[in-house]
Design brief:
With 131 residues, the protein is of the alpha/beta class. Strands 1-4-3-2 form a 4-stranded mixed sheet, covered by helices on one side. Helix content is 18%, strand content 40%. The chain has helices spanning 15-25, 86-97; strands at 7-11, 30-36, 48-55, 58-65, 78-82, 101-107, 114-119, 125-130.
């Protein structure tokens, strides 16, 4: 059976920094494996060819594109995280939105007691939810 895995393509060699950031700050996250471009390329040596990670329990692949694209991440794709409690919600909101952006500030929007939508410093969007 086919398996779909979210694939995050970074520009400018940011994949490893993103992987490390998520592994350090997001619960149930870790770097599972990391394969880098070597001296023969085709990407810049030391950048990520294939990164496999678990982010908040979700398997994710990451890659540093050596081709410049006219597009990047958009908020139309996001990671939706069910937070265990208000402390975790507040910590994730502060950590992930730092040097990023707030698309919807923490509030009760009617479908949740506390919800926020943010973009992190790497351009990845996160929806944080607390029932």
């Amino acid at each position: 059976m086919a398996k779909a895995t979210p694939f995050l393509m970074f520009q400018g060699g940011k994949a490893e920094a993103a992987l490390s950031f998520y592994a350090e700050h997001v619960p149930d996250s870790r770097i599972d494996s990391l394969e880098k471009f070597g001296p023969d390329g085709p990407g810049p040596e030391g950048t990520v060819l294939r990164g496999y990670a678990t982010v908040a329990g979700q398997a994710v692949m990451m890659h540093d594109s050596f081709v410049t694209h006219g597009f990047d991440f958009t908020p139309s794709w996001s990671l939706f995280v069910e937070c265990a409690d208000a402390t975790e919600f507040d910590r994730l909101f502060a950590t992930l939105s730092e040097d990023g952006g707030v698309l919807m500030p923490p509030d009760n929007y009617g479908w949740s007691t506390r919800f926020a939508w943010i973009s992190d410093r790497f351009g990845i969007s996160w929806q944080l939810n607390l029932q």
